[in-house]
Amino acid sequence: MKSDSVLIPELVPMLSRGKHRSPRKGACFMELASYLAGERWSDHPDCTHPLLAALARHVNDNSTDAGRQPLADLIPGVIGLVSDDLHVDIALALRAANTALPIVSAERQQVLAVAVLCGNRVLGDLDGHPAAWSQQRSREMLAAVPHAARWAVRHSMSTGPSKRAFRRHAAPSTVRYAVYSIAASVPEPDPYLHDLLAASIEDCRVLTGPARNTEPTLDVTAPQGASSS
Predict the structure, then answer these.
(1) Which of 57, 168, 186, 193 is most buried, judged by most C-beta within 10 A?
(2) pLDDT at 63
(3) Which CA distances in Å does 57 have to 92, 148, 161, 206, 223?
(4) Cβ partners under 8 Å of residue 90, min gap 6
(5) What proportion of the chain, given as a percentage, has pLDDT over 70?
């Protein structure tokens, strides 16, 4: 089912944290997506890329009760976004890490800086770039936190993990840590989390579309509408 053909019905459960056995018990973001897609009730539906679905679950669970309800408008957008292309996993991990990097606490910046280096090394290896290559946006984000960037260079591996290890472990860990770090570090995290998820959905839409450019030109920018001060 394509996302542009899906509308949220008027009578649906309000979004709440965690898993729910049925709509009568409530719904999280991805459970409602499974319902709208006509799938079995689940927070791990087949209609959405696994890492995007994980990001949606983390954002759902780390938003406040008031901030969670506006996420419902984003649900139709995740339906039908599926791909085996590793570029999608890399884009989601870098989007999350680059978004969180300049706004979280100093100790968390170190971990996220390592994640940014890791994602760029995997992307460089995937696309045949030189060893020292990195995306412009990643360079900008690392330059904004020089102490964390220097720490990351000293403590990260000179090469990225294998493609399989990145997809199974590094990328999910990066997405989870970035969301938790935003929620723990920012006084009012809801706008950041909402815009992170919205931007990630758009990244996936671009990368899974029929006219995707094979060059790694995706601009992994900070979410719109959230101040980085």
Answers:
(1) 193
(2) 97
(3) 14, 28, 25, 21, 18
(4) 119, 122, 123, 126, 166, 171
(5) 84
* Torsional class of 186: left (φ above 0), alpha (ψ -120 to 50), beta (otherwise): beta
Dump pLDDT digits (tens) for 3-12: 555 555 555 5
Q: Let me know: does 48 contact 77? Beta carbons within 8 Å.
A: no
158 pLDDT higher than 80: no
